[in-house]
Amino acid sequence: MQKETYDVVVVGAGVVGCSVSYHLAQSGLKVALVDKGSAAGEASQAAAGMLAPLGDEAPNQEHPLQQLGMAALGYYDGLDEQLKQETGIDIGLVDVPTLRPAFDEQGVAHLQALLTRQQHFLPGLQWLDGSLVHKIEPLLPETVQGALLSPYERSVQAARITLAYARGAAIRGAHLVEGCPVGRLIRQGQRVVGVETTQGPMYAGVIALAAGAWATQWHTRTSIPPIFPVKGQMMALQAPPSLHLRHTVYAYGVGGIVPKSDGTIFVGSTVEQAGFDKAVTAGGIATLLAAVTKLTPDLNRARFVRAWTGLRPGSADGLPLIGPSQSVQGLWIAGGYFRDGILLGPLTGHILAELIQKHSTPFGLDLQAFNPDRFGGWDSASSLT
Q1: Residue 186 exposed, middle or buried by CB count within 10 Å (0-12, 13-18, 19+)
Q2: Using CB atoms within 10 A of its CB, is residue 178 exposed (0-12), middle (13-18) or buried (19+)?
Q3: Where does CATH 3.50.50.60 sit in the chain?
Q4: 141-184 residue pLDDT tens
Q5: pTM of the model
Q6: CATH topology for 1-93+153-226+316-385?
């Protein structure tokens, strides 16, 4: 690689890294986007693409993650047309509502509590009794006692939006370097000035780490890693026209059934602490088939298309890490998104691009809870793997 100096080097070409690069390049900065594999090659390739800030529990609507999630959902408005016009890539945004069914009294109570906490926060959120649920979504079983309808939560083709941001960044002059593992940070005192790679050093005054489940390799050693891989197995089905799924169906602890723009239906996903293992297993497939049987039993007649795994970047406290590190000047972190990477990725790119340029935080968001140094400082040491 010819030695070159950039304004920013972004490490990791998942949805977050590609979005950061796109927004920085859009502002006229000289950007290099580097990945050990390929753009959208890891979690972005594997995600179901649900845009669901409501989550699994009933957090306070003033919680920073809820605020960030709702801002991120709104950031998708018009994004599909914008990226299609700029890059020619259709990101597969699907405007089908999400149904969260309840199968017993405990489930009903949980979802109604969620409704009470969130109905003034998420547009159109409402409770439907069992008879109405079966009318609007015939593929749900008769055992459903009611469901929470969320019309504004949507889904997208995760790999496509990642590739659209990668192409958009390249159109604006960003340099995409694939198949190039990144090693240690190059520092002068407490300031980062570049990174070592298998293709030689790359220099920049700002390094943005968006390396997904691999980000901890640049963090000081801790007893519990701040970011770690969470394996998720998924499968895709192709249903006949007579089995038309009208909603995304999601149940906490069971799984999600997600209709996609190309006519396939994604079923996901397992949550496994398996390190960096990416094998599709018999147990994983059994878990996914059990979700189909529980949530949409008629889809057991759908054709099996494929199965795959992804390594989602979990975090030690369940919150992402976003912003500048105080331990290494010039180092910015965007990681630990777990299931919310596709939801939060586009907005995160905008946020980091603004903050790197010393602009104010978009939408007045409070990012203190996402302090990237809350588990300790970041280090320069990392092997080239």
Answers
A1: middle
A2: middle
A3: 1-93+153-226+316-385
A4: 999 999 999 999 999 999 999 999 999 999 999 999 999 999 99
A5: 0.95
A6: FAD/NAD(P)-binding domain (3.50.50)
